Amino acid sequence: MGKTLAEKIWAEHVVRAAQGEPDLIYIDLHLIHEVTSPQAFDGLRLAGRTVRRPDLTIATEDHNVPTLNIDKPIADPVSKLQVDTLRANCAEFGLRIHSLGDKDQGVVHVVGPQLGVTQPGMTIVCGDSHTSTHGAFGALAFGIGTSEVEHVLATQTLPLQRPKTMAINVEGSLKPGVTSKDIILAIIAKIGTGGGQGYVIEYRGSAIRALSMESRMTVCNMSIEAGARAGLIAPDKTTFDYIKGKPHAPEDFDAAVGYWSTLFTDSDAKFDVEVNLNADELEPFVTWGTNPGQGLPLNSVVPNPADIADTEQRTAAERALVYMGLEAGMPLKKIAIDTVFLGSCTNGRIEDLRAAAEVLKGKKIASTLRMLVVPGSARVRLEAEAEGLDKVFLDAGAEWRNAGCSMCLGMNPDQLAVGERSASTSNRNFEGRQGKGGRTHLVSPLVAAATALRGTLSSPADL
Amino acid sequence: MEKFIKHTGTGVPLRRSNVDTDQIIPAVYLKRVTRSGFEDGLFAAWRNDPEFVLNKDAFKKGTVLIAGADFGTGSSREHAVWALQNYGFRVVISSRFADIFRGNSLKGGLLTIILDQDEVELMWAAVEADPSTSITVDLETRTVAYGSKSLPFEIDDYTRWRLMEGLDDIGLTLKQTDSIDSFEKNRPDYKPTTLPIRS
């Protein structure tokens, strides 16, 4: 029997396999940032260990860096200590770091692909659950905890239980105004936040093949919101063309393409589970609740918990409506928004900014809200400025910020206030995620831009 | 790592599903560079509510958290495990755990146990009726016992052995350095490196 793509990559990275033990898997690339690494470096020092492969490791500052006044010292002393600690650790262990102010600083999952260090067939880890983003290149990429960060630093390997495999087939073609963000939000609503637990997801089908590289990253990024540690897409010409010309693209490109072209699921391979989705039927999708599975097409109304048969889901929906301050039956398009956030590792790349700018061009955002535009990396910011996108955002009345995770998780000063409601292109609508008491609706960049113009949840078709 | 063989304590019923790691510890509490002191951020938003279970005297000393399904979803922050441990929890019981959280917990010696939702509901009822109900978690026999009940749970042999011995994963892997060396010798040249820097 043939192998799935994930099984092929796994097999190529087994350092040691023994009966009754997890496989020891070699890690091709380790991305680190300031929040989940300090205790790992402490662990190395305590045990007198070193970093085995500094040349397979790269650090960037993203989670708690400010997006304003980045030429000044970080104002929050605790954030500053964490960033300073990362810098000191990288200096001590000889690791490459892209610090605030550097053109390659930015959200770790935007930086890897733009440097070309993310390539097909690799195993990639980072102390961040959205590492699944890199799966868009046909890599096996997943988030790890700090103990595992230390383990990879010391050994360049991880002991891992082999995951099960799930295929999500998305056939058909997307209507105008429907994006890859809507695909993944619809998938999560369908299989639930626990649907992918224990699996690696492979996204397949004509609608996935038709996506650009950056749109594929959006899909794989949110695999974790469906419960799957990793999600991937078989590499193809779209992938190869994207990598070509990047700083760390292979020198012998043709040889690399030769290998990459072997990375697909064999026709006689069998997945443990298959899920099907029809792209023709998809609409712009938004979340109404406090977990990413609580989403609906934008044309729907807020659901009535009493209509939900499952007790657990009904209770969760009741709690979510109270937290979100929403009434059952209210049209989602009537929900008024206070803050629009465009950015994050989900939707902070150049294509996302271009799509939103196209909607905003020559128009003004509603006077009732603010809009933050936070490029995923300094390079994305420079690219956007070269195209004049910053002017489009500023002329529309939005704020143009520096790169970082920003309001996706509110570790820096970019936060929602209690009761404040956002339409956010990020990945998590958990209670308090964007600031204590803040309320989050997850949306695509197109919905974010249209919402900014109308003041209520909207798609470009409503303009 | 502290060995985990057997633990006896009282339970804390957390009747919520989808308790994500942002609820277990919000991002603003992640700025410490140490492994300790995270208990102040544990369930920070909920602890403002006097009705929240950890604010009730009867449950303040509990060491076994009994949670709803899909516990630990979201972020990979191991701080969630540390916050639970720093607060005093030794065990979390749920019908489903998020993969990364479960991995982190078992690395760090916080035992996460999967029971059927029906059994979780019965445990909730039992500890709510009598918060002093003694719960014994025995890794040797892979059982959770309270009242007249003894419930088996599954955990793979390797993880169980590592927890019972209190072994450090890194130390175990470093015994395989020869295997890693030989794997690296055969690693293809076309794999990228981050150094030297190219731009």
Low-confidence stretches of chain B are none
Report how far apart the termini of chain A are: 52 Å
Describe the largest sheet of chain B.
7 strands, mixed
Give the proportion of residues in helices of chain A: 25-40%
Give the DSSP E fraction of chain B (strand runs of 2 or more residues). 15-25%
Q: DSSP helix count of chain B?
A: 7
Q: Which bin fits the share of residues in helices of chain B?
A: 25-40%
Shape designation of chain A: globular
Trace the largest sheet of chain A across and list its strands: 5-4-3-6-7
**Average pLDDT across residues of chain B?**
96
Oligomer: heterodimer
According to DSSP, the number of beta strands of chain A is 19
| Number of helices in the DSSP assignment of chain A | 16
Q: From the alpha-carbon coordinates, what is the Rg of chain A to the nearest angstrom?
A: 21 Å
The largest sheet of chain A is:
5 strands, parallel
How far apart the termini of chain B lie comes to 42 Å
Protein model, in words:
The complex is a heterodimer of chains A (463) and B (199). Chain A contains 16 helices and 19 strands. The longest helix of chain A has 17 residues, at 77-93. The mean pLDDT of chain A is 97. Chain A starts with a helix and ends in a 9-residue tail after the last helix. In chain A, helix 6 (180-191) runs parallel beside helix 8 and helix 13 (350-360) packs across helix 15. Chain A has helices at 5-12, 38-47, 77-93, 108-115, 146-155, 180-191, 206-209, 213-221, 237-243, 253-260, 311-324, 344-347, 350-360, 378-387, 389-396, 445-454, and strands spanning 14-16, 23-26, 29-32, 57-60, 96-98, 123-126, 140-143, 157-160, 164-171, 199-204, 230-232, 273-278, 285-287, 295-297, 339-342, 370-373, 399-400, 421-424, 439-442. In chain A, the strands form five sheets. In chain A, strands 5-4-3-6-7 form a five-stranded parallel β-sheet, with helices on both faces. In chain A, strands 17-16-15-18-19 form a five-stranded parallel β-sheet, covered by helices on one side. Chain A has a four-stranded parallel β-sheet with strand order 11-10-9-12. With 463 residues, chain A is of the alpha/beta class. Chain B is an alpha/beta fold and 199 residues long. The relative contact order of chain B is 0.16. The mean pLDDT of chain B is 96. Helix content of chain B is 30%, strand content 17%. The longest helix of chain B is centred in the middle third of the chain and has 13 residues, at 117-129. Chain B has a seven-stranded mixed β-sheet. Chain B contains seven helices and seven strands; from the N terminus they run βαβαβαβαβββααα. The radius of gyration of chain B is 19 Å and the shape is globular.
